[in-house]
């Protein structure tokens, strides 16, 4: 008899299990179907049985939690509490014999439950970006005995996202540099915007980038935010600075999406795409013949529109008239060409020099040599200025013979001096010097001084040795 009852109980149990539909895990509701619509059903996996009238009267009491909705709309601004959903147990026959209670995160302060109906409401507006979900526990008890009718069940209320956050750029304003003359599609920089909305729900956090200001010079990838050049041969010497306004818009860029903007300041960096150019093709310099060897006797200038090392200029004297007399170097501070005297100048020998100077870049970029020769040529003429020089005696010393009884005023000889500036000789033997160019006198009896009348006076000196001869002897006396 006992074996027969056990067999019947076994068959009855499996028939009941087969007729029950599978239940989802506790606290794992399905996706929301909208306010007030059924979202899921969860049943505890515990079974409770009671024996009535002996083993043959064993009955299985079905138990299970039933709830409607586990989502609450964020930023709800209605005047009444927002309806969240309903908790219900199969044991609730609608006779108000069951009391529902709620515990966990926000129970009583954020969420409240109707103890009779199991309806849950949110008491205040919630922000998903502040807290995306709340974990709570439900309990159903007998109203009269306060005895639990269901095991306590845990469930989650998720805050459903709305598009209430605009995209924001983490950095900005951005600064970027790209070489001038870059080809189309050259990478410049990348901007990134983030959206605090839920990326797993709808398009609220799907950001699309666009350019509001900065075309046609630059472009931006709508998905990645990568900025590239959009025009070829952008010249720094024409325009160096660009300001680009980038927009990031959510909802995939659709109408009604929220947007944020940032500024990208782009600078074109210099490349060596310009040769040096002389400001004029002819330079005229005047150099005194007295200039010291190794001194700077003049400057010329070639301008380069580039900057930095790309504007460094090298100067070279083309072999010819001035190569032996002059050299040229570059002033590192201002890139002037400084002409240096290599040998002494002599106005009386050569009064002018004419030569050519090349100006070229020190650092060439082979990409731009197809533009033409990266150098320029100018002509330099240097006039040598005459400097007033002292007269020069033809001899450093003179020897003259005179008899001891020679009358005063007798011409006993002549000394000759020459002023190279005037090319004039004075005096000449037997003729007086009538020019006022020279003044001639004897100093200390033995030194002859000759000067010109220019201001300041310039003089030349020679020594004079006078031999006195006696008529009666061959004795010579030096005076």
The total domain count is 4
Tell me the overall shape: rod-shaped
Please mark out the parts with pLDDT under 50 across 5 or more consecutive residues, or reply none. Answer: 4-9, 11-62, 424-439, 442-447
The number of helices is 1
Give the % helix.
under 10%
β-strand percent reads: 35-45%
Tell me about the largest β-sheet.
Answer: 5 strands, antiparallel
> Would you tell me the overall average pLDDT?
79
Measured distance between first and last alpha carbons: 180 Å
Quickly give the structural class: mainly beta
- Provide the gyration radius in Å: 56 Å
Q: What name goes with the CATH superfamily of the largest domain? A: Cadherins
CATH topology of the largest domain: Immunoglobulin-like
At CATH level 2, the architecture of the largest domain is: Sandwich
What is the topology, as strand order, of the major beta sheet? 1-4-6-9-8
Explain this structure to me?
Keywords: Calcium, Cell adhesion, Cell membrane, Glycoprotein, Membrane, Metal-binding, Repeat, Signal, Transmembrane, Transmembrane helix. It is a single chain. The chain is mainly beta and 479 residues long. The chain has 4 domains: 69-160, Cadherins (Immunoglobulin-like), CATH 2.60.40; 168-269, Immunoglobulin-like; 277-385, Immunoglobulin-like (Sandwich), CATH 2.60.40.60; 389-478, Immunoglobulin-like. It is 4% helix and 41% strand. The protein has 1 helix and 36 strands. The protein has a 5-stranded antiparallel beta sheet with strand order 1-4-6-9-8, with no helix packed on it. Strands 30, 33, 34, 35 and 36 form a 5-stranded mixed beta sheet that branches. β2 (48-50) and β3 form a beta hairpin. It is rod-shaped. The relative contact order is 0.07. Residues 4-9, 11-62, 424-439 and 442-447 have low confidence and may be disordered.
């Amino acid at each position: 008899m006992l074996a027969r009852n056990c067999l019947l109980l076994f068959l009855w149990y499996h028939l009941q299990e087969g007729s029950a539909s599978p239940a989802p895990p506790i606290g794992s509701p399905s996706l929301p179907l909208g306010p007030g619509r059924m979202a899921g059903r969860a049943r505890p996996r515990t079974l409770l049985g009671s024996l009535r009238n002996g083993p043959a009267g064993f009955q299985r009491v079905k138990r299970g939690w039933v709830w409607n909705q586990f989502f609450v709309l964020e930023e709800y601004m209605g005047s009444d509490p927002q309806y969240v959903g309903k908790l219900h147990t199969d044991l609730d026959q609608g006779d108000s014999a069951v009391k529902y209670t709620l515990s966990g995160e926000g129970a009583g302060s954020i969420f409240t439950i109707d103890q009779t109906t199991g309806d849950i409401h949110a008491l205040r507006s919630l922000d998903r970006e502040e807290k995306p979900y709340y974990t709570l526990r439900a309990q159903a008890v007998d109203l009269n005995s306060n005895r639990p009718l269901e095991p306590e069940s845990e469930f989650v209320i998720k805050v459903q996202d709305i598009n209430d956050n605009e995209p924001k750029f983490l950095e900005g304003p951005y600064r970027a540099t790209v070489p001038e003359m870059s080809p189309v599609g050259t990478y410049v920089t990348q901007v990134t915007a983030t959206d605090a909305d839920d990326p797993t729900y709808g398009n609220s956090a799907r950001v699309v980038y666009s350019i509001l200001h900065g075309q046609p010079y630059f472009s931006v990838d709508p998905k990645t935010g990568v900025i590239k050049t959009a025009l070829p041969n952008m010249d720094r010497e024409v325009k160096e600075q660009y300001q680009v306004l980038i927009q990031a818009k959510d909802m995939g860029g659709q109408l009604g999406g929220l947007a944020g903007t940032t500024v990208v300041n782009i600078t074109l960096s210099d490349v060596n795409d310009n040769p040096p150019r002389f400001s004029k093709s002819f330079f005229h310099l005047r150099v005194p013949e007295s200039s010291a060897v190794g001194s700077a006797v003049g400057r010329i200038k070639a301008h380069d529109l580039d900057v930095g090392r790309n504007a460094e200029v090298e100067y070279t004297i083309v072999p010819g008239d001035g190569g032996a007399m002059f050299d040229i170097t570059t002033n590192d501070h201002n890139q002037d060409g400084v002409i240096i005297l290599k040998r002494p100048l002599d106005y009386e020998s050569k009064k002018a020099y004419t030569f050519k100077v090349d100006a070229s870049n020190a650092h060439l970029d082979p990409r731009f040599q197809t533009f033409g020769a990266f150098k320029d040529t100018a002509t330099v003429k240097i006039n040598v200025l005459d400097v007033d020089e002292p007269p020069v005696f033809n001899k450093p010393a003179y020897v003259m013979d005179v008899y001891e009884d020679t009358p005063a005023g007798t011409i006993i000889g002549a000394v000759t001096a020459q002023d190279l500036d005037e090319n004039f000789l004075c005096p000449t033997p037997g003729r007086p010097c009538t020019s006022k160019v020279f003044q001639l006198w004897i100093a200390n009896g033995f030194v002859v001084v000759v000067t010109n009348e220019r201001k300041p006076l310039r003089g030349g000196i020679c020594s004079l040795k006078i031999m006195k001869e006696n008529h009666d002897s061959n004795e010579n006396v030096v005076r």
